[in-house]
Amino acid sequence: MLRCTRISGGPLVWVLAAVLAAMAADAAIANCGHCGSKSDVPSCAAPLAVGNGLSTLTDAQAAGVDAAKKAKAAIGDCAPRLVLVFDSGAIEDKAKMLAGVCSVFDASLVYGCPGYSPLTQEGNTGTVGVLAIGGKIQVTTAVSDLAGGHRACGQRIGERLKAASKAKAAGRLLILFGDCHVPADDDLVKGACSVLGPGFPVVGGASSGCVYEKGKVIQKSNLGILLVGCFKCGFSMKKDNSPEGLITSARDAFTASKGKDKAVLILAFDCGGRRGKMGADLPKELEAMKAVAGKTPIFGFYGSGEIGHRDNKTPAWGDGYHISVCTLTPKCPHKEGGTPR
């Protein structure tokens, strides 16, 4: 116990005050887990951790359990901060599928949407895909209905995420998806970026009419998930719908977004129209992706519109018949400096 004798106006009071202030400052500032520097960025204390799983089962609840258990095993001992669920039209009872996922993960963490098919390194013809994201990251979500149109919806999402987007950290990423079939996806992006800033990093796609929030189905809405932490993003968005280009554009998008750094996750939002055109060549697209990704987990879905950046220098927009890719790589703000996408 610290005992203090009050000496009015004496120098001892000044010295003691300085010591106590220094002790309080040290208690509030942690060491960076990457470089050891003192930091007031809690997210810098540990790297990003991910684990995903894919199910090919057709029973809704069993498929949800199957994919979720694989994701939980893959992320290991790291506690998830966010659980993303993407499923295909083969799963008719979305509520049962989500119940399966929520039997493995806390429902408050479970978000997502349906599409034509989930996409992971395990396959691109499955029924349910689940991604668990952990580590020292900050996750903030916002769901809005379509009142006033998709641009107004995006503005509401942006307003709800604005305060969290200003947290001090190396990187940030907005994942946008929902009932925003192209060209509405571009209005959604423009609405969100009118609040968050024209260069704000965004990736995502259009779902099949609903989103999942805290393990529940929400109809005719869009969803924004903001990640803030010690990571940086690489972006690419490609379009080539020639028979050969359908495969090479996926390879090139992965290559451009990944760069030379060691990635921890590659998010991929692909076009359902492209998927249909590939036909029997669909496995070749996944093989092209995996050849670039290596051991890095892949997660996304085939949808009805793609959101992202052409490259790291251009603003986000929404379009169709593209593949949009975002690669997440750990970044220490003290060691490398700067605030990347």
* SS elements, strand count: 19
Strand count, sense and barrel status of the largest sheet are: 6 strands, mixed
Give the total of domains. Answer: 1
What letter string, H or E per element, gives the SSE order?
Answer: HEEEHEHEEEEHEHEEEEEHEHHEEEE
Give the overall form: globular
Share of helix, binned: 25-40%
DSSP strand (E) fraction?
Answer: 25-35%
The number of helical segments is 8
From the alpha carbons, calculate the radius of gyration and give it in angstroms: 22 Å
In round numbers, the mean pLDDT is 87
Distance between the termini: 47 Å
Low-pLDDT runs of 5+ residues are 1-33, 38-45, 336-341
Structural class, judged by helices and strands?
alpha+beta
Looking across the biggest beta sheet, what order are the strands in?
3-7-4-5-11-12
Features:
341 residues, alpha+beta, 6-stranded mixed β-sheet, disordered N terminus, disordered C terminus
Q: How does this model look, in words?
A:
This protein is of the alpha+beta class. The chain has one domain. The chain contains eight helices and 19 strands. The protein has helices spanning 11-28, 60-75, 94-102, 150-165, 184-196, 245-258, 272-278, 282-293; strands spanning 30-31, 38-39, 49-55, 80-87, 110-114, 117-120, 128-134, 138-145, 171-178, 202-206, 210-213, 216-219, 221-229, 231-238, 265-271, 298-303, 306-309, 316-319, 323-330. A six-stranded mixed sheet has the order 3-7-4-5-11-12. It is globular. The relative contact order is 0.16.
